[in-house]
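TEACHING EXERCISE
Course module: macromolecular assemblies
Task: Read the component lines below, then compare them to the predicted structure of the full complex.
Student: A.B.
Group: 4
Components provided:
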Amino acid sequence: MRARLFVVPLAIFVASFLLAACSSDEPSATPVSDEPLSEEAYLSAITSAEGLVADRIERLATTLGPLFPRTASKSIQKAVVFSEFEELEIGKFFEERYTAAAALVPSPGYAEDHQRYVASLQRLSAMVPVFESAIEDDDFAVLHLTIAEFQEESALTAIASSSSFCRALFRGAGVPDDVPPLCPENDDLPGGAYGQEISSLSHNFIARFGPRAGTNAAMT
Amino acid sequence: MFDETVSRLEAISPPDEYVAGHEVVLAYFKALTDTSDQIGTAIAAGDLEEMRLQMERSGTIAQETDESLPSNIRILLSPLFQP
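Instructor-supplied answer key:
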C-alpha cells in the first residue's frame, strides 16, 4: 500500500486554505516599493509572507485535521472545530493577506501568477461572510461546504500557476519542495498527449474533489 | 461537477500500454463522482452521519484503486497516488 494516498492532499488542502485564510499579527514581509521585484525576491517575498503563518497552518493541520470533517457528527468535536475557527479570526486574516499580496509588485515573469493570485484572494474575501455566518449559526454542513470552496479556490489557483510560483506558496506554508503534488510539473511526462491530459484531469479533479469529499476520510 | 471529468476520460482513446490503467482510473473517477453526489445530498439534508460515511467510502475507493492501479499510469496521477 502506498500510504501517501490522500494524506499529502490533506496537508496540501489545509495549507492551501490557509495560504489565503491566514496572516500573522507580525508586520507583513511585503516590500513597499513601486519597482518590480526581481524574480528571486518576489518568490522569496511570497514564501516569507506565507512563512509568517506557518504556526497557524501547523495548528489547524494538527488540531483539526484528524477531526474535521470525518467525525463531524460528534458534537464535542464540532465544538472544538468552531472554537478553533473563531480564534483564528478568518475574516480578518483574509483581508490582511489580500492587502499584503496586492501591494507586491511582481517581476514581469510572474505578473500573470500574481494577478491570478490576488484575484483569487479577492474572491476568497468575498466568501468570508458565508463562512462567518456558518460559525455564528453552528451550521456544520454549510461550514464544510464553505471551507471546501475556499480550498478549491486556493488549489485551483495553485495548479493554474507556474511551477515555481506554486512551490513558493507551498514552501511558505511549510510544505517541502518534494511534497506538493498539486503543483504543475516541469518535467516531461510519459504518454505524450495522453499523459498530459490525464495529468491535467487528475490535478483538477483532486483540487475540486478533495476538499469536498475525500481527504480526511482516508486518514486512518 | 465531476461529470465533465468522467466524460472527458470516456472520450479519450488511451495508447495501448495505458488501456488497463485507463479503465481503472475511469472507474475510480466514476465512483468518486458518485460519492460526491451522495455527500452533496447528505449535506443538503443535514445528515452529517451520512456525509461522514460517504467520505469514508471515498477513502475506501481510493485505497482499493491504489492496490489495482498499474504502475505505468501512476506517474500521471501524482496528485492522487504515489508513483
